Amino acid sequence: MEADISTQAVGLASNTDFSLLSLFIRADIVVKTVIILLITCSIYSWAVIIEKFRLFKKINVSSEEFEKKFWNSKSAESFYNNLPANIDDPMALVFKDAMQNLLKKKSKTDLNNRMTTMLETGIEKQISKISKGFTFLATVGSTAPFIGLFGTVWGIMNSFQSIAISRNTSLAIVAPGIAEALFATALGLLAAIPAVIAYNKFNNDSIKYSQKLENFSKRFLTII
Question: CA–CA separation, 31 vs 50, rounded Å?
């Protein structure tokens, strides 16, 4: 009798499909919702990661070129007049906004304080643009494991309910439900780990670039 039960259990286990698609299809609506949410977050996270990677690579090169041309120019005003209208480098935009403010204001009273405020405002504006999407990465990195864990706990609860209803504690009965539940945790970690790593890297890159803008602003103020 025991041999027959073991044979049936082995047969059930061998006939069960543990592919990712099958695990998703067999999962209940709550676990499916968790899986879809985590996959969506992971895809959007990678979109943000790729976009920010390209952005930092681009602005680091463009800012170096801008600084080199600026310090080789005859004057700040002539350099400003020759700037392209569609320039999108953050450092160039900070300089452009500051020069527009400087040329509009005829009064030279308290010039240093006005320019300092204008440059600081410009830097904050550009860093805010660069940092767009960081909050999403931080949120996914901190919440995705818990969302996955919720799906796992829910799936395991369903597995134990199935055991209670069927009154069968065979591993072949329990294994599919547990596999579905653990799939949610795996997806949570898969979404969270790249998001955390990317957030830390891009946040550090943003701080370094902010320091670069501040250094340029201080040097720019000395020639006004």
Answer: 29
Single out the residue of 37, 58, 55 nearest to residue 47, CA to CA. 55
CA distances from 99 to 75, 90, 119, 145, 170 (A): 12, 14, 10, 48, 76
Burial code of 176-213, b = ≥16 C-beta within 10 A, e = fewer?
Answer: bbbbbbbbbbebbebbbebbbebbeebeebbeebbebb
* Residue 162 three-state SS: helix
d(CA 82, CA 222): 21
The amino acid sitting at 33 is T
pLDDT band at 193 (very low <50, low <70, confident <90, very high): very high
SS3 109: coil
Could you identify the residue written with the tokens 């504690």? 169
Distance CA 160, CA 103 (A): 74
* Distance (Å, whole) CA 173 – CA 13: 8
Give the global pTM: 0.79
Inter-residue contact 219 to 211 (CB < 8 Å): no
d(CA 12, CA 5): 10
Q: Tokens 């930092």 correspond to what residue? A: 56
User: 81: helix, coil or strand?
Assistant: helix
The full set of domain ranges for the chain reads 22-222
pLDDT digits (tens, 9 = 90+) for 126-183: 999 999 999 999 999 999 999 999 888 888 887 777 777 767 666 666 666 677 778 8
